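User: Hi! I have a protein structure encoded as tokens and I'd like to know what sequence might fold into it. I'm fairly new to this, so please keep things simple.
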């Protein structure tokens, strides 16, 4: 194995680009084809598809917590050149994630008929919802393992591999959905094709992860020594993912259950248009996590602070560029894109949702820096508070203000997460003080 080059800035820049590209592919394709899907599926079927994606996205996010644990510890062991432990971490992470994925899939399959009739009140759409959700549960199992391979590839700072596979998978999913919708097929057919494409992506990413990890066996295994740190970090990271799910997905479930799938269609499009404000920045900044995780073993507090500060300055510029057009030009955008009636109904909601994602994006550099420094408990606590506050407000505001109420509820989350920077400042100051107080060797 070659030595880890911790100062390779060109590689970091390339990885930022790959991270951004990885995120961009699906939203751009979905936004470009949204009008086509609404025309061929109808607003109710489109809303049903968005609901299925929301449920699987919510459930899948709960598996990513242990994927983040894999990223953290694979990066750490790579920094120590301990490649045997790298393989052990990967295999143990697969075991944990697969267990979560199977458990979530069984729950979704069992609750699908009940949810169709008693939660979302879908009536004639109930059979399509039940079948689609059960296929989506199988997709979730596949993705639970895929998350570990993606984390492994990123831990080696080879973002290109993950981007190539993810981009191809997302393009194929959208293209196949266009084909099925155009030929009169519904959501179950789209989800079945999604499952097949995801299996191919799993195989490709597994092969890439195996090559990077030294071609060792990457089948699930249980390692007692490697289990405890992964579970400790992964549990809090899982709780943090739960809070993120509350912010990014639960409001759509509330809209669907209280207002129906048609209103969800309007609201989901507002969220899809606005998500890149946070998603692009998070995807580009994700390189901080493995980079700082490896550097934290021997870098000074001053060096870590400098890296975080540069990332924060770039984040502020990116927020201004991405959010301003949506906040101030929502009505014009929807009128030109979806028509005057759509703009009249949803433009205000788009402006508020865009603002909420902008406020949340400010925490991203501090978020990854604290995770790299092992302060996952504080990050989790802050996100749980923000997510709970956002969910509570949604339950209060949606019945009164409709989809605008759901958008307003999102505004509370971002400012709560800014507490991360107070903690980061404290951690780095403490680290610097300990270094200064340590006896100097001649």
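Assistant: Happy to help. Inverse folding works backwards from shape to sequence: for each of the 442 positions I chose a residue that suits the local structure. Here it is:
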């Amino acid at each position: 194995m070659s030595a880890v080059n911790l100062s390779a800035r060109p590689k970091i820049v390339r990885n930022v680009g790959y991270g951004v590209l990885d995120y961009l592919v699906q939203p751009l394709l979905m936004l470009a084809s949204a009008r086509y899907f609404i025309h061929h599926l109808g607003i109710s079927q489109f809303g049903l598809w968005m609901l299925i994606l929301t449920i699987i996205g919510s459930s899948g996010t709960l598996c990513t917590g242990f994927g983040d644990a894999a990223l953290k510890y694979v990066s750490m062991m790579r920094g120590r050149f301990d490649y045997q432990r790298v393989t052990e971490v990967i295999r143990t992470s697969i075991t944990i994630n697969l267990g979560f994925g199977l458990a979530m899939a069984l729950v979704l399959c069992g609750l699908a008929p009940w949810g169709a009739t008693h939660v979302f009140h879908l009536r004639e759409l109930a059979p399509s919802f039940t079948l689609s959700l059960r296929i989506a549960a199988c997709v979730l199992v596949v993705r639970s393992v895929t998350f570990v391979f993606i984390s492994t590839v990123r831990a080696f700072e080879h973002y290109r591999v993950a981007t190539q596979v993810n981009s191809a998978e997302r393009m194929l999913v959208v293209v196949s959905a266009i084909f099925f919708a155009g030929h009169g097929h519904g959501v179950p057919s789209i989800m079945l094709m999604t499952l097949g494409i995801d299996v191919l992506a799993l195989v490709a990413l597994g092969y890439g992860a195996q090559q990077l990890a030294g071609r060792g066996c990457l089948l699930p295994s249980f390692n007692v020594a490697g289990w405890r740190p992964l579970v400790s970090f992964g549990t809090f990271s899982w709780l943090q993912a739960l809070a993120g799910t509350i912010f990014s997905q639960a409001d759509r479930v509330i809209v669907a259950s209280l207002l129906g799938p048609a209103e969800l269609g309007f609201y989901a499009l507002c969220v899809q248009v606005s998500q890149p404000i946070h998603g692009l920045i998070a995807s580009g900044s994700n390189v901080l996590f493995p980079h700082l995780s490896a550097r934290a073993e021997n870098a000074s507090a001053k060096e870590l602070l400098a890296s975080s500060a540069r990332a924060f300055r770039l984040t502020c510029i990116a927020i201004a560029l991405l959010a301003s057009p949506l906040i101030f030009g929502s009505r014009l955008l929807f009128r030109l894109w979806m028509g005057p009636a759509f703009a009249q109904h949803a433009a205000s909601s788009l402006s508020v949702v865009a603002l909420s994602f902008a406020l949340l994006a400010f925490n991203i550099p501090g978020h990854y820096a604290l995770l790299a420094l092992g302060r996952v408990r504080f990050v989790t606590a802050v996100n749980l508070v923000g997510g709970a506050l956002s969910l509570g407000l949604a339950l209060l505001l949606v019945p009164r203000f409709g989809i605008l109420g759901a958008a307003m509820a999102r505004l509370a989350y971002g400012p709560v997460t800014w507490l991360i920077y107070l903690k980061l400042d404290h951690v780095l100051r403490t680290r610097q003080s300990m270094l200064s107080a340590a006896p100097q060797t001649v």
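A useful reference point when you look it over: The chain has a mean pLDDT of 82. Feel free to ask if any position seems puzzling.
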